[in-house]
Input
Amino acid sequence: MHPTLPYQPQQPPRSEWHTFNGHAYHIRRWGQPDAPLLVMLHGWMDCADTFQFVADRLAGGWQIVAPDWRGFGHSAWNHGSYYSPDYLADLDALLQHYSPHHAANLIGHSMGAMVAGLYAGIRPDRVARLALVEGFGLTATRPAEAPGRYARWLREKQQAPAFAALASLDEVAAKLQARNPRMALPYAQHMAAALCHQQDGQLQYRADPRHKMVNPVLYRLEEAKACWQRISAPVLWVIGGDMWDHPMAKGVFDTLPERRACFAQLTETTIADAGHMIQWEQPAALADTLAAFFTYK
Output
C-alpha cells in the first residue's frame, strides 16, 4: 500500500492581520488582488482554511478573502461569551476594509451563512450577491426556554467548557473522516493541522472552547425572517444531498418552505453525495456551482 501524500494546495493562501472592532483578526487570501472579490465566511468550530479546496478551483479567476471569525483559527479569543451581533459588526468592518466602495459577493457556510444572511437584510446596499451554503437559520425557540437557557449560561460562566488534549493529528483526521465519510484523507489531514496547534506541550483545538457555552439569547426565527425579507441581492441556497446529515437539520427543514418564502430572488442547488461539510466532501462541485452563480449577468 502506498503512503498517503500530504495535500499540496494548488493556490497557497496568504495571511493578513487586521484589527476589527478592537479585535485581532486573521485573514486568509487567495488569488490576485485585482481579480473580482469573493468573501467566504466559515462555520462554527471551523476556520478560514476550510475553503482551501474550493479556492484551489476558483482562485485563478477570483480573489478570495476569508476571515477566521473571532475565537476561531488564528484570530483572537473573546474574554467572555460570544454573541451573534458581534459577528455582524465584524463582517461590516471587514467589508469596509476590503470592499469600501462596492457591494460585496458573500459566501457563507453554516454559521457563516447565518451571519451573512442576516447582514444582507440589515445592510442590503453592501451585498451584491449572496450564497448560503447549508446555513438557513437555526431551529426556532420558544420564550418558555429562556429561564433554563439563562440558568445554564450562568452555570457555564462559573465553569467554562474546555477541550481535552488530543492524541495526534492522525486521530483528529480520522474523526473528521468518520463525520464526513466522503472526505479524502489528504483533505482531512490538511484540516486537522489547520484546526489544531501545540499549546503548553499538548495538541489542542485552536477554537475557544467557550464557543460551546449555551447562547443565553434565544434564536428568534421571526426576527431572522424579517431580515431575510429585506435582502435585495440575488440569493443562492446550496444544500447537501444528505440533508439529514446535520444534528440541527430536522428543525430547519421542517420549516424550510416558510424560510424559503422570505427571499425575493432565490435559486436553490442540491449537491449530491455531500453532507453538511460540502466544501470538504465535494469541493469541485461546490466551486463550479459558486462560479456559475457569481459570474451570472
Observations:
- The beta strands are 14-20, 23-30, 37-41, 63-67, 104-109, 127-133, 196-199, 202-205, 235-240, 266-271.
- The mean pLDDT is 93.
- The two ends are 49 Å apart (CA to CA).
- The chain has eleven helices and ten strands.
